[in-house]
Design brief:
six-stranded antiparallel sheet; globular; eleven-stranded antiparallel sheet; about 375 residues; mainly beta
Length: about 375
């Protein structure tokens, strides 16, 4: 049996309502119950170290938090310390926004098969769209929309669409809820509105779901969150994986539509970034990791609150508020998928390090006091 502990929230004595009537007057005894309220989960008394992860450049990067040891337990492990670090990054760019999600074997998938970057040039180009090469683009290629007439002015047209079959043959490893983030820019003076339709066919006919609308008006590449969408398009609770062939899920398609609202310039579309949100999700804004604030620390309290602080090697500068209800590590093998950017732009060569010096730690959790693992 492993040694375990639980957070005690309160200890109180509750006397019986009629205790004075049942105890002789000469006795100095109070009858009642001692009530101990604790957290519902038991924790290990010793935390587990996570490995250092030098996150490669890219639109969506991957960190293997299980390379030292897969989390054990029957519920998600509590992240006691996660470090996102720019100390060793040349130029220390001001990394301001960080999106992090998790995929694990707990959901019956293979995390290493998940593809978080959907390159739009891998799909099918729409009206007036073509591809161009640039070192500033994810994968070195992007889609550019150059209108031949005024058909884009205040009128929605499909610029590109990409299906799951264009990205991966492992459709089951992409099941779940994901935040879709578009990387885009307006290279010359113009303003565009962009949205995405999701459907189970490449024609975008019949049943479809529309995303949030983003406004693109800057010449620098930037990330634009479009809201969340579940894969596959069908409801698995009503139509299970044995009901329909895999080919139906392979046709899950994201259709990128755009309209120009001012100016005469083009629109560039790079990729869609998928951040898983249904197992664990964390978003931090105003991190401002750069010259002074070199490290963002994230941790969960034993009461399940998510806390952050931004610091240098010697000083604490701020505590940017996290957008997360919890940040657990599911039991079993898993990966973190991370997208990050500066305050007003996305530079594809920027880099962050995760848990430098193996400083990151998590605490395994169980629903039961007894049991070995």
């Amino acid at each position: 049996t492993n040694t375990r502990q639980a957070l005690v929230k309160s200890i109180r004595f509750e006397p019986d309502h009629n205790w004075m009537a049942t105890v002789p007057a000469v006795e100095t005894v109070m009858v009642g119950q001692l009530v101990i309220e604790r957290h519902p989960y038991w924790e290990a008394t010793v935390s587990v170290t996570m490995a250092t992860g030098n996150v490669a450049v890219g639109a969506v990067t991957t960190y293997d938090y299980t390379s030292v040891r897969d989390p054990v337990g029957d519920v998600g492990a509590r992240v006691s310390r996660l470090l996102i670090d720019v100390t060793n990054v040349t130029g220390t760019p001001a990394i301001d926004r960080i999106w992090t999600g998790i995929r694990s074997t707990k959901e019956g998938i293979t995390p290493t098969n998940f593809v978080g970057t959907w390159e739009l040039e891998s799909g099918t180009l729409g009206t007036d769209a073509s591809t161009a090469a640039a070192a500033t683009a994810s994968g070195g290629v992007y889609v550019t929309v150059s209108e031949s007439a005024a058909e884009w002015d205040n009128t929605w047209n499909r610029a590109s669409f990409v299906s799951l079959s264009d990205i991966s043959a492992n459709e089951q490893d992409h099941y779940g809820e994901h935040l879709f983030i578009l990387r885009s820019r307006a290279p010359t003076a113009s303003t565009w509105r962009v949205k995405t339709y999701y459907s189970s066919n490449t024609a975008n006919s019949g049943l479809s779901i529309v995303s949030d609308v983003a406004e693109v008006s800057t010449s620098a590449w930037n990330f634009y969150p479009l809201g969340t969408q579940r894969l596959p398009f069908r409801d698995l609770s009503g139509f299970g994986t044995g009901t329909l062939a895999d080919s139906y899920d392979q046709l899950f398609t994201a259709h990128v539509y755009a309209q120009r609202t001012s100016g005469t310039g083009d629109l560039d579309l790079d990729c869609l970034c998928l951040i898983p949100v249904d197992e664990a999700f964390l978003y931090v804004e105003d991190a401002d990791l750069g010259t002074n604030q070199l490290v963002l620390e994230v941790g969960m309290t034993p009461q399940d609150g998510v806390k952050t602080l931004a610091r240098s090697a010697t000083q604490i500068f701020s505590s940017p508020p996290p957008n997360a209800e919890s940040f657990y590590l599911p039991p079993g093998d898993g990966r973190m998928f991370i997208t990050f950017a500066r305050a007003g732009s996305s530079v594809i060569t920027d880099r962050i390090d995760v848990n430098t010096g193996s400083a990151g730690r998590y605490v395994p959790r169980w629903t039961y006091l007894r049991g070995s693992e």
